[in-house]
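anyone seen this seq b4? input:
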Amino acid sequence: MMTLLLMVGCTSSVGDDPGHDPSLKCNGHEALCDRAVNAVAFAGAHNIMSSAEREWLAPNHLVAMPQQMQNGVRGLNMDVYNVDGVLMLCHGYCELGSQPLSEGLREVDVFLQEHPNEVFMITFQSSVDVQLMNDAFVESGLQEHVYAHELGTPWPSLRTLIDSQSQVVVFSSEGGGTEGWYHAQWDWWFDNPYSATSVDDFSCDVDRGEITNDLFNVNHFLTNPIGMQEFAEEVNFNPVLRDHVFRCQDETGRLPNQVLVDFASIGDLISVVDELNQVD
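predicted toks r here
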């Protein structure tokens, strides 16, 4: 599994301009506009491409990505495979469900055209060739909106990304870092263990990445042996969700920048993320 923000591969950073419209809402809230990316929490969907709506077998979600984005999900976690030279969104076995990556990315591009004041993180579990990945972004149109960030430099605000139309930040579990916009996930992120099979397994220990990295992902889903709707009914509601997320914030001293769940349309994900962001 894994977790995702992008910008056209031409510049490596964007300067903030505080003189822009103060009434702008960024990811739905004025208060978020002038916060740096690493000072914002994003609602995340684990394996967002896998849905019952699209008739995937053993899906991770009830509704497909367009509805997830409408619901407020801004952290898009996807698995990518090379199937006979075509990059496909699949989860383990493409026979269970699949979608061309370029089509999935085009759904994000269409959403951004209609909602230009939103910022997304995309995290890929992928080991595919970066040139094929770049081709899929170009074909989808989303390459026009990716952001490239340099290690060791301050993150821009959401307002800056929106003003520059660079509203997507992209990370990959493998193969990232070869292009400026295609970030190596574990250079930037750390996370807690993702293999919980019961509520008692939820941990805030650092699993991948270093705690000194800029971004913190909290995995909050059960896999026993796969994700199931009944598990989400158990863990996606408060107090279970809230207690785990805020415990991780307390134990690490770090704001969770992404809360990643299965069946994101079930439960209290959006309200917990709003509370992390201290917005109504």
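The chain is about 25% helix and 15% strand. The longest strand covers residues 75-83. kinda curious what u guys think
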